[in-house]
Design brief:
The chain is of the alpha+beta class. 37% of the residues lie in helices and 9% in strands. Strands 1-3-2 form a three-stranded antiparallel β-sheet.
């Protein structure tokens, strides 16, 4: 699976059955009046946290990228009011990190230097310095690219402090992790994984129940 696979649970079930050749009865009841391009707020339905620390649509948009970093020694805002909208650590220079990330020119997102103190989870009751991640165009943002760009810059700025290796628990792709370690750019990383991503998108097409 791609990190941001863009499939519903029912669609994933169809893919698992087909690709794993599972001999199971499967009946997926489709949602009515929903199209794949619509965000949750277009449905008029009440927001329900899919996880205790995913409290808003903005956090859900950011999660595929920012969540990749949470197994490392970075706070991604757990223990604050805005998990996955902030990240930092006591040893980060907030202004430098924000400047480097903004200079990278990522679409749909901006970074503001901040200080915050989580009241639980990683760095509980310690002041962290880092960035607030502001989504300025959710239709343009590429959250996985955002997470990878942050990883690239953290490794360049703090090679002896940031625990890049721990990112493997969620990233899984060892080739991409090794490329970050070896100094690759975001463009390098995208060229590395794009062929497999293109293949996945072709595979998933026959399992999709909803279209644009």
């Amino acid at each position: 699976l791609a990190v941001r696979h863009g499939m519903t649970v029912g669609e994933l079930a169809k893919m698992y059955r087909a690709e794993r050749k599972l001999n199971v009865d499967l009946d997926v009841i489709q949602c009515e009046s929903w199209r794949r391009g619509e965000y949750w707020d277009a449905t008029g339905l009440m927001w329900v946290n899919p996880s205790p620390n995913m409290r808003s649509l903005t956090e859900a948009v950011l999660y595929p990228g920012i969540g990749l970093l949470e197994t490392t020694n970075i706070s991604v805002g757990r223990g604050t009011d805005t998990p996955f909208e902030v990240l930092g650590a006591p040893w980060i220079d907030a202004k430098e990190l924000a400047a480097r990330l903004n200079a990278a020119g990522l679409v749909g997102v901006r970074f503001v230097p901040i200080e915050f103190t989580p009241d639980s989870s990683k760095y509980a009751n310690e002041q962290c310095r880092g960035v607030n991640i502001t989504v300025v165009d959710r239709n343009a943002i590429q959250p996985v690219a955002v997470g990878l760009q942050i990883a690239v810059i953290l490794h360049k700025l703090y090679p002896d402090k940031w625990e890049l290796k721990a990112m493997d628990r969620l990233l899984i792709n060892k080739e991409v992790l090794a490329a970050i370690r070896d100094g690759a750019t975001l463009k390098d990383l995208q060229e590395l994984y794009q062929p497999k991503l293109d293949d996945f998108l072709k595979r998933r097409e026959k399992c999709l129940l909803y279209h644009e």
